[in-house]
Amino acid sequence: MNIEERLLKGDKRACARLITMLENDDRKAIDIIKKLYNHTGNAYVIGITGPPGSGKSTLTDRLTKELRKKGKKVGIIAIDPTSPFTGGAILGDRIRMNDLSLDKDVFIRSMGTRGSLGGMSKSTWGAIKVLDICGADYIFVETVGVGQSEVDIVKTADTVLMVMVPNLGDDIQAIKAGIMEIADIFAINKSDLDGADKTQLEIEMNLDLNDKKDYRPPVVQVSASNNKGMDKLVDKLLEHKKYLEETDELIDRRKRNTKLEIIKLVEEELMNLILNKALEENLLDNLSKEIILKRLDPYSAKDKVLELIK
Amino acid sequence: MNIEERLLKGDKRACARLITMLENDDRKAIDIIKKLYNHTGNAYVIGITGPPGSGKSTLTDRLTKELRKKGKKVGIIAIDPTSPFTGGAILGDRIRMNDLSLDKDVFIRSMGTRGSLGGMSKSTWGAIKVLDICGADYIFVETVGVGQSEVDIVKTADTVLMVMVPNLGDDIQAIKAGIMEIADIFAINKSDLDGADKTQLEIEMNLDLNDKKDYRPPVVQVSASNNKGMDKLVDKLLEHKKYLEETDELIDRRKRNTKLEIIKLVEEELMNLILNKALEENLLDNLSKEIILKRLDPYSAKDKVLELIK
């Protein structure tokens, strides 16, 4: 069997290999995805974000188990911040030491953001397509932290699940402001801790202020590590999916995300082209030296680089 | 007095106006910075990052007060995540309700990341230059959260200060992995809480593993809200500054950051050019429709957009 056939059969090893090829910018990976593109579009993508310490990984694992009970195939992509120096994923391949990794219908992968050109890398989009081709019914894309790459997650997801915890301290205002408009569902994890009701109230009050849409994000108290409330959370996820499908908003979201993906692909190709050319001529080194010596400013330096492609 | 003269005199209102012009992509702002570029390079830039709830704002305020005691002029730029939908800063202009804002030698500004093209926007770099021209001795650039835009902060900073707190939960591993290599100084804030010593030990152990450089990042326990240890923290900041200056690493860092800034400027100009052209022809809309219908794949769509500039 060639790799295309193995992918269509949901072979996890073929799937892993193709994602690695994507990460290595192997053109053959793109060719394979292009060829199999009409097999995409079946997977439903759920973005999971939330502050450090909110237990996103455990929650994702539990959601996966709930979906497995329903016979669904699940993919998990965990996004790591990328080192600004090495370009590699900072956490490396976080291996989840649990029974999920033994399940042939669960695929788990950790991926770096490939820093400099934005939070979501083209490999993330590519990996989603690979899992889609491999027959995943649901794909979780899980972030680390709360910041730009976490806000960016909305650009790949059909549904965005925000994981909160009680007692987030003063910065809860900042977090809430940051995610209120991107979250479709709120899960308050570790809800056995004091303060869960207060956190829920705060979120609900914020939702009251933003209540301009037909759909109001539900707030669900759960405890992933105790497996409490996970069935209800899955119900809410499926309800949101149904809502999007029935109102055609799913098509709109996917169109928006597809546009963003095209822009990203254009950006990466173009910048690679220019940077390679600038590198050849040692241009960036020379320009930055001139700038440090204040014989040039960065804006004029930019114009000089742009002349390269004219 | 024209705006150039007012900037050179450190007029806060002129400074604020120029930054607003930068945010609005007003070409005149760039022309002014270009004209005054030889007045830059005196400010020392300190990036402040750390997880939500670590008290970064309070700590920045306290550091500012310490530096004011030494007669230094200080600028503070607080980075907000940007809304993926409106493009505006999510937190709006967080106004610090304290005595600092009345000090004529302290300038405070909140700025959005302008999402899609990466964590640090060209306005952030521009604003640093404006504050530099206005005579700031020190500029703090403060992030929200821990993620890609927080890792990106290193790209504007001379010194990176990482703020930690005791009891960060399981995700401390992720945070540590994410910032170990970018932090020059660690502050454990709220060190009156239990667990500060344990957090310090964990950081020190990680530093032991990474101990390949001449300079080892110090770990300082502080309590910003009680004004405890802030003088020591300032000492460590000044020591790191001195170290960078004496070893010429400061020049290297600034060269590296300048290169990244040029790349960012090139990227933004080029993408604006292409996107405007694509917008005119309704190209992205049409392509994404085709992709949703599976008559096209995103990679072929990218090629079609790139043809626009050929």
Shape of chain A: globular
Our measurement of the CA-to-CA distance between the termini of chain A, rounded to an integer number of angstroms, reads: 46 Å
The H-level CATH homologous superfamily of the largest domain in chain A, spelled out, is P-loop containing nucleotide triphosphate hydrolases
Count of the separate structural domains of chain A: 2
Average pLDDT figure of chain A: 85
Question: How many strands, which pairing sense, and closed or not: the largest β-sheet of chain A?
Answer: 7 strands, parallel
Summarize the SSE layout with pairings:
The structure is a homodimer of 310-residue chains.
Chain A (H helix, E strand, L loop, with lengths): L2 H6 L3 H12 L3 H9 L8 E6 L6 H14 L4 E7 L25 E7 L9 H12 L4 E5 L5 H4 L7 E6 L7 H8 L5 E4 L7 H14 L9 E3 L8 H17 L2 H32 L2 H10 L5 H10 L3
Parallel strand pairs in A: 1-4, 1-5, 2-3, 2-4, 5-6, 6-7
Could you walk me through the main structural features you see in this protein, from its secondary elements to its overall organization?
The structure is a homodimer. By secondary structure, chain A is of the alpha/beta class. Chain A has two domains: about 40-245, 3-Layer(aba) Sandwich (Rossmann fold); about 265-305, no CATH class. Helix content of chain A is about 50%, strand content about 10%. The first copy, chain A, contains twelve helices and seven strands. Chain A has helices at about 5-10, 10-25, 25-35, 55-70, 120-135, 150, 170-180, 195-210, 230-245, 250-280, 285-290, 300-305; strands at about 45-50, 75-80, 105-110, 140, 160-165, 185-190, 220. In chain A, strands 3-2-4-1-5-6-7 form a seven-stranded parallel sheet, with helices on both faces. In chain A, helix 2 (about 10-25) packs across helix 3, helix 2 packs antiparallel against helix 5 and helix 4 (about 55-70) crosses helix 9. Chain A is globular. Chain A starts with a helix and ends with a helix. The model of chain A is unreliable at about 85-95 and about 115-120 (pLDDT under 50). At the A-B interface, helix 3, helix 6, helix 7, helix 10 and helix 11 of A face helix 3, helix 6, helix 7, helix 10 and helix 11 of B.
